[in-house]
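Open question from group meeting: does this chain pack into something compact, or does most of it stay loose? Before anyone orders reagents, we agreed to write out a predicted structure and look at it together. Recording both the input and the output here so the notebook holds the full record.
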Amino acid sequence: MSKDTSKLLSYVLRHAPESLGIVLDAGGWTSVEQLVAKAQQAGHRIDRATVEAVVAESDKKRFTLSEDGRLIRPLRATQSRWTSDWPLLRRRTFCSTEPDETRSTRSWPKG
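Structure tokens returned:
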């Protein structure tokens, strides 16, 4: 297994799919063929066999392939922005100008 390939897959699938121009579906899945093609276009030495080896041999089990082997996605979705119910999640924004109703507003500036 290539450590560089594992790091590339982690970065692209878990953090920045747009860095290679990859589109993930709502469940975080993307085509292995698309992933390999886009990575090769960007100058990375990667092929399908290497991707499959990383998925199979990774001790951290960060990725999974679909049953037919055509799709790949990151695991540990709670640490990633991609989850099976991604469209239903509401992300909290802590840099909002509005007070958060779950926190005390005693010291919130009067406006």
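Observations to bring back to the group:
The two ends are 58 Å apart (CA to CA).
Residues 3-86 form a domain with the Arc Repressor Mutant, subunit A fold (CATH 1.10.10.970).
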